[in-house]
Write a structure and sequence with these properties.
Blueprint: E1 50-58, E2 61-75, E3 81-92, E4 108-112, H1 121-128, E5 131-133, E6 148-150, E7 160-164, E8 173-174, H2 186-203, E9 211-216, H3 218-234, E10 240-244, H4 262-276, H5 282-285, H6 288-309, H7 315-329, H8 333-338, H9 345-351, E11 358-360, E12 368-370, H10 383-402, H11 433-442, E13 447-453, H12 461-469, H13 475-478, E14 481-486, H14 496-510
Parallel strand pairs: 4-7, 4-9, 9-10, 10-13, 13-14
Antiparallel strand pairs: 1-2, 2-3, 3-7, 3-8, 5-6, 11-12
Helix pairs in contact: 1-10, 2-3, 3-11, 4-6, 4-12, 6-7
Length: 512
Amino acid sequence: MPPMKKTLFPLLAAFAVSARAAEPAATNAPAAPTNSFAAAKIPDAAKEPVRVTNTVTIAGQRVAYVAETGMLPILKNDGATRASVFYVAYTRTDKAENGNLKSEKRPVTFCFNGGPGSASVWLHLGALGPRRAKMNEDGSQPAPPFALVDNEYSILDSSDLVFIDPVATGFSRAAKDEKAEQFFGVDGDLDSVGEFIRLWTTRHERWLAPKFLLGESYGVFRAAGLAEHLRGRYGLYLNGLILVSGVLDFATIYNVPGNDLPYPLLLPAYTAAAHFHKKLPPDLQADLSKALAEAREFANGEFLSALHAGAAVTPDEKQKVVVELSRLTGLTSEVIKDNNLRIDEGTFRKQLLHNEGLILGAYDARLTGRDGDAAAQGPGFDPSSAAVTGPFSAAMNSYARSELKFEDDLPYELIAGVQPWNYGVRNGYANASERLASVMNQEPYLKLLVVGGRCDLVCPIDTMRQSLEHMGLAAEQRKNIFYAEYDAGHMMYINLPDLKKLQGDVEKFLQP
Protein backbone atom coordinates (compact mmCIF):
# COMPACT_ATOMS: atom_id res chain seq x y z
CA MET A 1 0.00 0.00 0.00
CA PRO A 2 1.33 3.45 -0.78
CA PRO A 3 2.53 5.19 2.34
CA MET A 4 -0.52 7.45 2.32
CA LYS A 5 -2.11 5.96 5.46
CA LYS A 6 -5.03 4.49 3.54
CA THR A 7 -7.17 1.94 5.30
CA LEU A 8 -7.43 -1.54 3.86
CA PHE A 9 -10.77 -1.72 2.03
CA PRO A 10 -12.03 -3.63 -0.96
CA LEU A 11 -12.58 -0.84 -3.43
CA LEU A 12 -8.95 -0.20 -4.42
CA ALA A 13 -5.67 -1.99 -4.74
CA ALA A 14 -3.79 0.72 -2.92
CA PHE A 15 -0.67 -1.35 -2.79
CA ALA A 16 2.86 -0.59 -3.82
CA VAL A 17 3.64 -1.95 -7.24
CA SER A 18 7.36 -1.52 -7.36
CA ALA A 19 9.98 -3.55 -5.54
CA ARG A 20 7.85 -2.92 -2.41
CA ALA A 21 4.71 -4.24 -4.10
CA ALA A 22 1.71 -5.38 -2.11
CA GLU A 23 2.99 -4.38 1.30
CA PRO A 24 -0.25 -3.89 3.24
CA ALA A 25 0.64 -1.23 5.40
CA ALA A 26 -1.15 1.72 6.58
CA THR A 27 -0.68 2.82 10.12
CA ASN A 28 -3.78 1.89 12.10
CA ALA A 29 -5.16 -0.18 9.20
CA PRO A 30 -6.91 -3.41 10.14
CA ALA A 31 -5.04 -6.64 9.58
CA ALA A 32 -5.67 -8.46 6.31
CA PRO A 33 -8.08 -11.38 6.60
CA THR A 34 -6.43 -14.69 7.39
CA ASN A 35 -9.18 -16.88 5.98
CA SER A 36 -8.15 -20.07 4.19
CA PHE A 37 -9.25 -20.68 0.63
CA ALA A 38 -8.99 -24.46 0.72
CA ALA A 39 -11.98 -25.52 -1.28
CA ALA A 40 -13.21 -28.83 0.12
CA LYS A 41 -16.74 -27.48 0.69
CA ILE A 42 -17.31 -25.22 -2.27
CA PRO A 43 -20.56 -25.67 -4.22
CA ASP A 44 -20.32 -27.89 -7.28
CA ALA A 45 -19.94 -25.65 -10.35
CA ALA A 46 -21.73 -28.31 -12.36
CA LYS A 47 -24.87 -27.75 -10.29
CA GLU A 48 -27.73 -25.95 -12.02
CA PRO A 49 -28.04 -22.27 -11.08
CA VAL A 50 -30.99 -21.06 -9.04
CA ARG A 51 -33.48 -18.84 -10.88
CA VAL A 52 -36.13 -16.59 -9.37
CA THR A 53 -38.44 -14.07 -11.02
CA ASN A 54 -39.28 -10.60 -9.83
CA THR A 55 -40.19 -7.10 -10.95
CA VAL A 56 -38.87 -3.64 -10.15
CA THR A 57 -40.09 -0.17 -11.06
CA ILE A 58 -37.50 1.83 -13.01
CA ALA A 59 -38.28 5.27 -14.45
CA GLY A 60 -41.94 4.71 -13.66
CA GLN A 61 -42.20 1.41 -15.55
CA ARG A 62 -42.38 -2.10 -14.19
CA VAL A 63 -39.44 -4.22 -15.35
CA ALA A 64 -39.80 -8.00 -15.13
CA TYR A 65 -36.64 -10.04 -14.77
CA VAL A 66 -35.09 -13.38 -13.91
CA ALA A 67 -32.30 -13.41 -11.32
CA GLU A 68 -29.91 -16.32 -11.92
CA THR A 69 -27.49 -17.21 -9.12
CA GLY A 70 -24.86 -19.89 -9.39
CA MET A 71 -21.30 -21.01 -9.95
CA LEU A 72 -19.38 -21.35 -13.20
CA PRO A 73 -16.19 -23.42 -13.52
CA ILE A 74 -12.85 -21.97 -14.53
CA LEU A 75 -11.46 -24.67 -16.76
CA LYS A 76 -8.03 -26.06 -17.53
CA ASN A 77 -7.07 -26.89 -21.11
CA ASP A 78 -8.07 -30.51 -20.47
CA GLY A 79 -11.50 -29.49 -19.20
CA ALA A 80 -10.79 -30.03 -15.51
CA THR A 81 -12.04 -27.40 -13.07
CA ARG A 82 -9.55 -24.98 -11.49
CA ALA A 83 -12.07 -22.87 -9.59
CA SER A 84 -15.75 -22.17 -9.15
CA VAL A 85 -16.84 -18.56 -9.61
CA PHE A 86 -19.99 -17.20 -8.00
CA TYR A 87 -22.19 -14.85 -9.98
CA VAL A 88 -25.60 -13.21 -10.00
CA ALA A 89 -27.08 -12.42 -13.41
CA TYR A 90 -30.22 -10.43 -14.17
CA THR A 91 -32.08 -10.85 -17.46
CA ARG A 92 -35.00 -8.64 -18.34
CA THR A 93 -37.93 -10.76 -19.51
CA ASP A 94 -40.59 -8.28 -20.62
CA LYS A 95 -38.29 -7.09 -23.46
CA ALA A 96 -37.13 -10.52 -24.56
CA GLU A 97 -38.26 -11.62 -27.99
CA ASN A 98 -41.17 -14.07 -27.75
CA GLY A 99 -40.24 -14.77 -24.14
CA ASN A 100 -36.75 -15.91 -25.17
CA LEU A 101 -34.31 -15.11 -22.35
CA LYS A 102 -31.39 -15.57 -24.76
CA SER A 103 -32.30 -12.60 -26.96
CA GLU A 104 -29.04 -11.64 -28.61
CA LYS A 105 -30.08 -8.08 -29.38
CA ARG A 106 -30.14 -6.95 -25.76
CA PRO A 107 -26.94 -5.54 -24.21
CA VAL A 108 -25.24 -7.40 -21.38
CA THR A 109 -22.91 -5.69 -18.90
CA PHE A 110 -20.35 -7.66 -16.88
CA CYS A 111 -19.69 -5.94 -13.55
CA PHE A 112 -16.99 -6.29 -10.89
CA ASN A 113 -15.37 -4.29 -8.13
CA GLY A 114 -11.68 -4.16 -7.34
CA GLY A 115 -9.54 -4.65 -4.29
CA PRO A 116 -7.86 -6.79 -5.46
CA GLY A 117 -9.87 -9.07 -3.25
CA SER A 118 -13.27 -7.38 -3.39
CA ALA A 119 -16.56 -9.03 -4.19
CA SER A 120 -18.92 -7.26 -6.59
CA VAL A 121 -21.42 -6.49 -3.82
CA TRP A 122 -20.75 -2.73 -3.89
CA LEU A 123 -21.80 -2.18 -7.49
CA HIS A 124 -24.42 -4.92 -7.24
CA LEU A 125 -26.31 -3.66 -4.19
CA GLY A 126 -25.16 -0.05 -4.35
CA ALA A 127 -25.74 1.12 -7.88
CA LEU A 128 -26.73 -1.24 -10.66
CA GLY A 129 -28.87 -4.16 -9.55
CA PRO A 130 -32.65 -4.15 -9.02
CA ARG A 131 -32.23 -4.22 -5.23
CA ARG A 132 -29.94 -2.02 -3.16
CA ALA A 133 -28.68 -1.65 0.38
CA LYS A 134 -30.48 1.24 2.01
CA MET A 135 -28.24 4.13 3.02
CA ASN A 136 -29.09 7.62 4.21
CA GLU A 137 -29.71 9.90 1.25
CA ASP A 138 -26.30 11.56 1.62
CA GLY A 139 -24.51 8.20 1.75
CA SER A 140 -23.93 8.17 5.49
CA GLN A 141 -24.67 5.06 7.52
CA PRO A 142 -28.24 4.48 8.68
CA ALA A 143 -28.90 3.05 12.13
CA PRO A 144 -28.99 -0.75 12.31
CA PRO A 145 -30.79 -3.02 11.68
CA PHE A 146 -30.14 -2.48 7.99
CA ALA A 147 -32.47 -2.98 5.04
CA LEU A 148 -32.79 -3.77 1.33
CA VAL A 149 -35.02 -1.69 -0.95
CA ASP A 150 -35.98 -1.76 -4.61
CA ASN A 151 -33.52 0.16 -6.75
CA GLU A 152 -35.51 2.43 -9.03
CA TYR A 153 -32.16 3.67 -10.40
CA SER A 154 -30.97 0.26 -11.63
CA ILE A 155 -29.78 0.08 -15.23
CA LEU A 156 -31.58 -3.23 -15.77
CA ASP A 157 -34.12 -1.49 -17.98
CA SER A 158 -31.31 -0.83 -20.48
CA SER A 159 -28.94 -3.80 -20.09
CA ASP A 160 -28.87 -7.28 -18.66
CA LEU A 161 -26.36 -7.54 -15.82
CA VAL A 162 -23.82 -10.12 -14.66
CA PHE A 163 -22.06 -9.54 -11.33
CA ILE A 164 -18.82 -11.51 -11.00
CA ASP A 165 -17.01 -12.36 -7.77
CA PRO A 166 -13.38 -13.22 -8.65
CA VAL A 167 -11.78 -16.28 -7.09
CA ALA A 168 -11.63 -16.09 -3.24
CA THR A 169 -14.27 -13.33 -3.07
CA GLY A 170 -17.95 -13.81 -2.39
CA PHE A 171 -18.59 -17.56 -2.55
CA SER A 172 -15.96 -18.13 -5.27
CA ARG A 173 -13.21 -20.59 -4.39
CA ALA A 174 -10.32 -22.45 -5.98
CA ALA A 175 -11.01 -26.12 -6.63
CA LYS A 176 -9.77 -28.81 -4.29
CA ASP A 177 -6.04 -29.47 -4.76
CA GLU A 178 -5.67 -26.19 -6.69
CA LYS A 179 -3.63 -23.35 -5.20
CA ALA A 180 -5.70 -20.22 -4.79
CA GLU A 181 -2.54 -18.11 -5.20
CA GLN A 182 -2.48 -18.83 -8.95
CA PHE A 183 -5.38 -16.38 -9.26
CA PHE A 184 -3.80 -13.66 -7.09
CA GLY A 185 -2.10 -11.54 -9.73
CA VAL A 186 -2.76 -9.50 -12.85
CA ASP A 187 -2.37 -12.36 -15.34
CA GLY A 188 -4.10 -15.04 -13.29
CA ASP A 189 -6.98 -12.68 -12.58
CA LEU A 190 -7.43 -11.74 -16.25
CA ASP A 191 -7.28 -15.38 -17.26
CA SER A 192 -9.93 -16.51 -14.76
CA VAL A 193 -12.33 -13.57 -15.15
CA GLY A 194 -11.90 -13.70 -18.91
CA GLU A 195 -12.69 -17.44 -18.92
CA PHE A 196 -15.80 -16.76 -16.84
CA ILE A 197 -17.02 -14.14 -19.33
CA ARG A 198 -16.38 -16.47 -22.28
CA LEU A 199 -18.21 -19.38 -20.69
CA TRP A 200 -21.18 -17.33 -19.46
CA THR A 201 -21.50 -15.73 -22.90
CA THR A 202 -21.36 -19.16 -24.56
CA ARG A 203 -23.81 -20.92 -22.25
CA HIS A 204 -26.30 -18.08 -22.49
CA GLU A 205 -25.91 -17.67 -26.28
CA ARG A 206 -24.95 -13.99 -26.08
CA TRP A 207 -22.02 -13.86 -28.52
CA LEU A 208 -23.99 -11.57 -30.85
CA ALA A 209 -25.23 -9.28 -28.06
CA PRO A 210 -23.67 -5.86 -27.37
CA LYS A 211 -21.22 -6.43 -24.50
CA PHE A 212 -19.87 -3.99 -21.92
CA LEU A 213 -17.53 -4.21 -18.93
CA LEU A 214 -18.16 -2.08 -15.85
CA GLY A 215 -15.37 -2.04 -13.28
CA GLU A 216 -14.76 -0.01 -10.16
CA SER A 217 -11.39 0.89 -8.59
CA TYR A 218 -8.92 -1.94 -9.32
CA GLY A 219 -11.78 -3.19 -11.47
CA VAL A 220 -10.85 -0.39 -13.89
CA PHE A 221 -7.32 -1.80 -14.15
CA ARG A 222 -8.90 -5.26 -14.65
CA ALA A 223 -11.34 -3.99 -17.30
CA ALA A 224 -8.55 -2.43 -19.35
CA GLY A 225 -6.62 -5.69 -19.28
CA LEU A 226 -9.71 -7.77 -20.01
CA ALA A 227 -10.51 -5.75 -23.13
CA GLU A 228 -7.16 -6.83 -24.56
CA HIS A 229 -7.31 -10.36 -23.14
CA LEU A 230 -10.81 -11.14 -24.40
CA ARG A 231 -9.95 -9.84 -27.84
CA GLY A 232 -6.66 -11.68 -28.13
CA ARG A 233 -7.62 -14.96 -26.46
CA TYR A 234 -11.19 -15.48 -27.65
CA GLY A 235 -11.84 -12.90 -30.36
CA LEU A 236 -14.49 -11.42 -28.07
CA TYR A 237 -14.89 -7.74 -28.92
CA LEU A 238 -16.56 -5.28 -26.58
CA ASN A 239 -18.79 -2.31 -27.28
CA GLY A 240 -17.62 -0.27 -24.33
CA LEU A 241 -15.99 0.02 -20.93
CA ILE A 242 -17.48 1.92 -17.98
CA LEU A 243 -14.61 2.85 -15.67
CA VAL A 244 -15.72 3.87 -12.18
CA SER A 245 -13.38 5.55 -9.67
CA GLY A 246 -10.36 3.70 -10.94
CA VAL A 247 -6.69 3.60 -11.67
CA LEU A 248 -4.83 2.72 -14.86
CA ASP A 249 -1.32 3.79 -13.90
CA PHE A 250 -0.26 3.29 -10.29
CA ALA A 251 2.35 6.03 -10.64
CA THR A 252 -0.55 8.49 -10.50
CA ILE A 253 -1.58 7.45 -6.98
CA TYR A 254 1.59 6.09 -5.36
CA ASN A 255 3.35 9.11 -3.83
CA VAL A 256 6.76 7.97 -2.66
CA PRO A 257 10.04 9.90 -2.56
CA GLY A 258 11.01 10.54 -6.15
CA ASN A 259 7.46 10.42 -7.47
CA ASP A 260 5.66 13.72 -6.96
CA LEU A 261 3.05 13.12 -9.67
CA PRO A 262 0.16 12.23 -7.30
CA TYR A 263 0.30 15.52 -5.37
CA PRO A 264 -0.95 17.84 -8.15
CA LEU A 265 -3.45 15.20 -9.27
CA LEU A 266 -4.90 15.09 -5.74
CA LEU A 267 -5.26 18.85 -5.45
CA PRO A 268 -8.68 19.23 -7.15
CA ALA A 269 -10.08 16.53 -4.85
CA TYR A 270 -8.77 18.43 -1.82
CA THR A 271 -10.41 21.58 -3.17
CA ALA A 272 -13.74 19.79 -3.65
CA ALA A 273 -13.60 18.37 -0.13
CA ALA A 274 -12.65 21.72 1.40
CA HIS A 275 -15.52 23.31 -0.51
CA PHE A 276 -17.98 20.74 0.84
CA HIS A 277 -16.82 21.46 4.41
CA LYS A 278 -16.89 25.23 3.78
CA LYS A 279 -13.17 25.77 4.35
CA LEU A 280 -12.35 27.76 1.21
CA PRO A 281 -12.12 31.58 1.00
CA PRO A 282 -15.39 33.35 0.06
CA ASP A 283 -14.72 33.72 -3.69
CA LEU A 284 -13.96 30.02 -4.10
CA GLN A 285 -16.66 28.92 -1.67
CA ALA A 286 -19.22 30.74 -3.79
CA ASP A 287 -18.38 28.82 -6.98
CA LEU A 288 -17.15 25.21 -6.98
CA SER A 289 -16.54 25.23 -10.73
CA LYS A 290 -14.28 28.27 -10.37
CA ALA A 291 -12.48 26.67 -7.44
CA LEU A 292 -11.82 23.43 -9.35
CA ALA A 293 -10.66 25.31 -12.43
CA GLU A 294 -8.18 27.30 -10.34
CA ALA A 295 -6.98 24.15 -8.59
CA ARG A 296 -6.32 22.38 -11.89
CA GLU A 297 -4.59 25.37 -13.42
CA PHE A 298 -2.34 25.78 -10.38
CA ALA A 299 -1.69 22.04 -10.16
CA ASN A 300 -0.51 21.90 -13.75
CA GLY A 301 1.52 25.08 -13.51
CA GLU A 302 3.28 26.61 -10.53
CA PHE A 303 2.67 23.69 -8.17
CA LEU A 304 4.05 21.12 -10.58
CA SER A 305 7.06 23.32 -11.33
CA ALA A 306 7.84 23.79 -7.65
CA LEU A 307 7.65 20.04 -6.98
CA HIS A 308 9.84 19.34 -9.99
CA ALA A 309 12.43 21.84 -8.78
CA GLY A 310 12.77 20.04 -5.45
CA ALA A 311 15.41 21.63 -3.24
CA ALA A 312 16.18 24.11 -6.02
CA VAL A 313 12.92 25.98 -5.51
CA THR A 314 13.64 29.47 -4.16
CA PRO A 315 12.23 30.62 -0.79
CA ASP A 316 10.03 33.21 -2.52
CA GLU A 317 8.69 30.66 -5.00
CA LYS A 318 8.03 28.20 -2.22
CA GLN A 319 6.19 30.74 -0.09
CA LYS A 320 4.01 31.68 -3.04
CA VAL A 321 3.08 28.03 -3.51
CA VAL A 322 2.37 27.66 0.22
CA VAL A 323 -0.05 30.59 0.15
CA GLU A 324 -1.91 29.27 -2.90
CA LEU A 325 -2.07 25.72 -1.57
CA SER A 326 -3.54 27.02 1.66
CA ARG A 327 -6.13 28.96 -0.33
CA LEU A 328 -7.10 25.93 -2.43
CA THR A 329 -7.10 23.28 0.31
CA GLY A 330 -8.26 25.04 3.47
CA LEU A 331 -5.15 23.84 5.30
CA THR A 332 -2.96 26.18 7.31
CA SER A 333 0.33 27.42 5.90
CA GLU A 334 2.09 25.71 8.80
CA VAL A 335 0.78 22.28 7.82
CA ILE A 336 1.84 22.82 4.21
CA LYS A 337 5.31 24.01 5.20
CA ASP A 338 5.77 21.15 7.65
CA ASN A 339 5.02 18.70 4.83
CA ASN A 340 7.30 20.45 2.32
CA LEU A 341 4.36 21.20 -0.03
CA ARG A 342 3.58 17.48 -0.30
CA ILE A 343 0.24 16.86 1.38
CA ASP A 344 -0.67 13.20 1.32
CA GLU A 345 -4.21 11.96 1.70
CA GLY A 346 -3.80 10.97 5.35
CA THR A 347 -2.49 14.39 6.36
CA PHE A 348 -5.33 16.17 4.58
CA ARG A 349 -7.94 13.91 6.17
CA LYS A 350 -6.49 14.51 9.62
CA GLN A 351 -5.87 18.23 9.39
CA LEU A 352 -8.76 19.85 7.50
CA LEU A 353 -11.24 19.58 10.40
CA HIS A 354 -8.68 19.03 13.13
CA ASN A 355 -9.97 21.93 15.22
CA GLU A 356 -13.43 20.33 15.25
CA GLY A 357 -12.00 16.98 16.32
CA LEU A 358 -13.07 15.33 13.06
CA ILE A 359 -11.35 13.26 10.40
CA LEU A 360 -12.43 12.85 6.78
CA GLY A 361 -13.18 9.70 4.85
CA ALA A 362 -10.62 8.52 2.31
CA TYR A 363 -13.08 7.05 -0.16
CA ASP A 364 -15.54 9.87 0.43
CA ALA A 365 -14.16 13.00 2.05
CA ARG A 366 -17.67 14.35 2.63
CA LEU A 367 -18.13 11.79 5.42
CA THR A 368 -16.50 12.44 8.78
CA GLY A 369 -15.83 10.65 12.04
CA ARG A 370 -14.34 11.33 15.44
CA ASP A 371 -10.77 10.20 15.92
CA GLY A 372 -9.91 8.99 19.39
CA ASP A 373 -6.33 10.28 19.24
CA ALA A 374 -6.12 13.94 18.34
CA ALA A 375 -2.33 13.91 18.64
CA ALA A 376 -1.79 11.04 16.19
CA GLN A 377 -0.09 11.90 12.93
CA GLY A 378 -2.81 10.36 10.75
CA PRO A 379 -6.46 9.32 11.01
CA GLY A 380 -7.19 6.16 12.95
CA PHE A 381 -9.82 4.81 10.55
CA ASP A 382 -11.76 5.66 7.41
CA PRO A 383 -15.28 6.92 8.21
CA SER A 384 -16.40 6.33 4.62
CA SER A 385 -15.51 2.63 4.63
CA ALA A 386 -16.99 2.21 8.11
CA ALA A 387 -20.27 3.69 6.85
CA VAL A 388 -20.84 1.12 4.10
CA THR A 389 -19.43 -2.16 5.39
CA GLY A 390 -22.26 -3.03 7.80
CA PRO A 391 -25.21 -2.14 5.54
CA PHE A 392 -23.74 -3.92 2.49
CA SER A 393 -22.69 -7.02 4.41
CA ALA A 394 -26.12 -7.41 5.99
CA ALA A 395 -27.85 -6.77 2.69
CA MET A 396 -25.86 -9.35 0.71
CA ASN A 397 -25.95 -12.07 3.33
CA SER A 398 -29.72 -11.72 3.63
CA TYR A 399 -30.39 -11.26 -0.10
CA ALA A 400 -28.43 -14.30 -1.31
CA ARG A 401 -30.34 -16.75 0.85
CA SER A 402 -33.78 -15.21 1.41
CA GLU A 403 -34.49 -13.70 -2.03
CA LEU A 404 -32.08 -15.30 -4.50
CA LYS A 405 -32.54 -18.70 -2.80
CA PHE A 406 -28.84 -19.49 -3.02
CA GLU A 407 -27.96 -21.49 0.08
CA ASP A 408 -24.42 -22.07 1.24
CA ASP A 409 -22.87 -22.07 4.69
CA LEU A 410 -19.55 -20.57 3.63
CA PRO A 411 -19.09 -16.91 4.57
CA TYR A 412 -19.66 -14.43 1.77
CA GLU A 413 -16.25 -12.73 1.54
CA LEU A 414 -16.76 -9.01 0.93
CA ILE A 415 -13.00 -8.60 0.98
CA ALA A 416 -10.60 -11.52 0.79
CA GLY A 417 -6.96 -11.70 1.82
CA VAL A 418 -5.43 -12.12 -1.64
CA GLN A 419 -2.12 -10.44 -0.88
CA PRO A 420 0.59 -10.44 -2.00
CA TRP A 421 -0.84 -9.63 -5.42
CA ASN A 422 1.48 -10.22 -8.36
CA TYR A 423 1.45 -7.09 -10.48
CA GLY A 424 4.01 -8.55 -12.88
CA VAL A 425 6.42 -5.62 -12.60
CA ARG A 426 9.69 -4.96 -10.80
CA ASN A 427 11.15 -1.56 -9.96
CA GLY A 428 8.28 0.19 -11.66
CA TYR A 429 4.54 0.86 -11.52
CA ALA A 430 1.80 -1.38 -12.85
CA ASN A 431 0.18 0.35 -15.81
CA ALA A 432 -2.71 -0.87 -17.98
CA SER A 433 -2.88 2.25 -20.14
CA GLU A 434 -1.04 0.84 -23.14
CA ARG A 435 -3.09 -2.35 -23.10
CA LEU A 436 -6.18 -0.20 -23.30
CA ALA A 437 -4.68 1.99 -26.01
CA SER A 438 -3.77 -1.06 -28.08
CA VAL A 439 -7.35 -2.33 -28.03
CA MET A 440 -8.87 1.08 -28.78
CA ASN A 441 -6.52 1.66 -31.70
CA GLN A 442 -7.54 -1.69 -33.18
CA GLU A 443 -11.23 -1.51 -32.34
CA PRO A 444 -12.51 1.84 -33.64
CA TYR A 445 -15.99 1.36 -32.15
CA LEU A 446 -14.86 0.71 -28.57
CA LYS A 447 -15.90 3.59 -26.33
CA LEU A 448 -15.15 4.54 -22.72
CA LEU A 449 -17.18 6.23 -20.00
CA VAL A 450 -14.94 7.46 -17.18
CA VAL A 451 -16.84 8.08 -13.94
CA GLY A 452 -15.46 9.69 -10.79
CA GLY A 453 -16.48 11.46 -7.60
CA ARG A 454 -14.92 14.81 -6.80
CA CYS A 455 -14.44 13.89 -3.12
CA ASP A 456 -12.62 10.61 -3.82
CA LEU A 457 -9.17 10.90 -2.22
CA VAL A 458 -8.15 7.34 -3.18
CA CYS A 459 -8.65 7.43 -6.97
CA PRO A 460 -9.22 11.07 -7.92
CA ILE A 461 -10.71 11.41 -11.38
CA ASP A 462 -7.76 13.60 -12.40
CA THR A 463 -5.51 10.54 -12.15
CA MET A 464 -7.59 8.83 -14.83
CA ARG A 465 -7.45 11.92 -17.02
CA GLN A 466 -3.69 11.96 -16.65
CA SER A 467 -3.40 8.33 -17.72
CA LEU A 468 -5.78 8.58 -20.65
CA GLU A 469 -4.30 11.82 -21.95
CA HIS A 470 -0.80 10.33 -21.95
CA MET A 471 -1.47 6.93 -23.48
CA GLY A 472 -0.61 6.17 -27.09
CA LEU A 473 -4.02 6.59 -28.64
CA ALA A 474 -4.88 7.75 -32.14
CA ALA A 475 -6.65 11.11 -32.20
CA GLU A 476 -9.73 9.62 -33.84
CA GLN A 477 -10.21 7.16 -30.98
CA ARG A 478 -10.03 9.93 -28.37
CA LYS A 479 -13.48 10.99 -29.53
CA ASN A 480 -14.75 7.76 -27.96
CA ILE A 481 -13.80 8.80 -24.40
CA PHE A 482 -16.45 10.44 -22.23
CA TYR A 483 -16.26 11.74 -18.63
CA ALA A 484 -18.83 12.19 -15.87
CA GLU A 485 -18.12 13.79 -12.48
CA TYR A 486 -20.15 13.55 -9.29
CA ASP A 487 -20.36 15.36 -5.96
CA ALA A 488 -19.55 12.42 -3.67
CA GLY A 489 -16.56 10.10 -3.55
CA HIS A 490 -15.33 6.69 -4.69
CA MET A 491 -18.75 5.04 -4.29
CA MET A 492 -20.58 8.09 -5.55
CA TYR A 493 -23.74 6.03 -5.92
CA ILE A 494 -24.33 5.86 -2.15
CA ASN A 495 -25.23 9.57 -2.44
CA LEU A 496 -28.79 9.47 -3.79
CA PRO A 497 -28.51 12.52 -6.13
CA ASP A 498 -25.37 10.99 -7.63
CA LEU A 499 -27.05 7.59 -8.03
CA LYS A 500 -29.79 9.25 -10.08
CA LYS A 501 -27.22 11.00 -12.26
CA LEU A 502 -25.15 7.84 -12.66
CA GLN A 503 -28.14 5.92 -13.96
CA GLY A 504 -28.77 8.55 -16.63
CA ASP A 505 -25.12 8.81 -17.64
CA VAL A 506 -24.64 5.05 -17.95
CA GLU A 507 -27.89 4.40 -19.79
CA LYS A 508 -27.08 7.14 -22.31
CA PHE A 509 -23.64 5.57 -22.83
CA LEU A 510 -25.17 2.12 -23.39
CA GLN A 511 -27.27 3.34 -26.29
CA PRO A 512 -25.97 2.38 -29.76
